[in-house]
Structure formats: structure tokens, C-alpha cells
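In the laboratory, one determines a bound structure by crystallizing the protein with its ligand and collecting diffraction data. In a computational setting the workflow is compressed into a single prediction: the sequence and the ligand go in, and a structural description comes out. We illustrate the idea with protoporphyrin IX containing FE.
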Amino acid sequence: MDCTIGTTNVKSKFLAVLAPNQQIQCNRRKKLGNLPNWARRRKASRMSFKPQSVYELLGGEEPLRLMVDAFYERVETDPILRPMYPADLVESKRRLFLFLAQFFGGPTRYSEERGHPRLRMRHFPFAIDQQARDHWLDHMGAAIDETSIEEPARSMMRDYFERSSAFLINRPDSIEIDDS
Ligand code: HEM
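The predicted complex, in C-alpha cell form:
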């Protein structure tokens, strides 16, 4: 609080001693101004708080590598997804791992090797309908669980995969024709 008694400035109305004919006028100080120094520092540091990336929350690349391996183990036996991928999955694994490490805040090796991700364009050759997307998302969800990725990283990743996989649907659902 900034207060004045006549033309005299006083720090606080609680410290002021008024003569019977005097009046005190106070204005609120802006944001941090009326806080003690220790509280100002704490508030300022909270205001500039930088959220941790998923990569930092995971503690590095190892959980991501394990999750990608678990995901591809499931793709191996998926009747809808497996035919879309090349016979040898080693490079596919590597690319997905590098992309996710970069996207979640780790090293930018994916872009150094592959340029801009352009995921919609890169997925266009594959017929991704709702069913293919659901299989992909189920396997990724299971891979997150198998790797024991903990909150809050778990929800952040699930949320991202839900949205990005929906965004990659590029074919309408196949229509079953009943010609009986
Ligand atoms: C929606 C269901 C999806 C299907 C059916 C699908 C399928 C595929 C296929 C068949 C490939 C080519 C394999 C290869 O790398 O040689 C591929 C590549 C890739 N996918 Fe997906 N994908 C899906 C969703 C996603 C999502 C949600 C992401 C990211 C969050 C993603 C990230 C990637 C990346 C980074 C590559 C490698 C791109 C490159 O650099 O060439 N995919 N995907």
C-alpha cells in the first residue's frame, strides 16, 4: 500500500499515526510491489516457471526406446497394421523413436536426418481409416503401460497420441456393401 498523509508519504496505513484533523489516503501498489522481498522472489520465480518437458520427466531416452520397442512388438502381429510397414522394422523403429524424442523435448536428431516431419504427408501413402487408427492407438497405449511410464508424462503422452493419430486419418471408413 502507498499512503499519504497530506503531502507526506507513508509505507502503510497500519504504521501511520494520525492527528485528529488528518486524513490518510492509500493506493494499492501493482502486483509484486506490496509483498515482502522473500514473497516477491517466490512469486516472481513462480511467474517464470518453465514446465518440464516429457523427455525431462522421463529422465532421458531409455523409457522412450523401450516404449517404441513394445509398440512395434504389437505391430508385428497386427493384421491391419503389419502389411503397411516394411518387412524389416529396424528403420521404422529408429525413425519413430527419433521423432518422439525430439517432439517430447529431447535432441533434434530426427529433423537433422529427415527434415521437417510433415507427418500427414508422410502417412498419405498408407490407408489410415478409423480402424487402423484405433489399432495404432491401442498398441501405443499398451506400450506406455508396459513401459510403466508414470504420471504426469503418461497422460501428456496419451493425450498427444490420441490427437495426432486422429489427425493422421486419411481415408473414410470402408463401407460394407450388402448386395443380398
Ligand atoms: C494413425 C495410425 C498410424 C499408422 C497406421 C501409421 C503407420 C505408419 C507407417 C506404415 C509408417 C512407415 C514406416 C516406416 O517408417 O518406414 C509410419 C511412419 C512414421 N510414423 Fe506413423 N502411423 C500412424 C500414426 C502415427 C502417429 C500418431 C505418429 C506420431 C505421433 C507417427 C509417427 C511416424 C513417424 C515419425 C514415421 C516415420 C516418418 C519418416 O521419417 O519417414 N505415426 N507410420
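DSSP finds eight helices and three strands in the chain. Keep in mind that any predicted model is a hypothesis to be tested, not a measurement.
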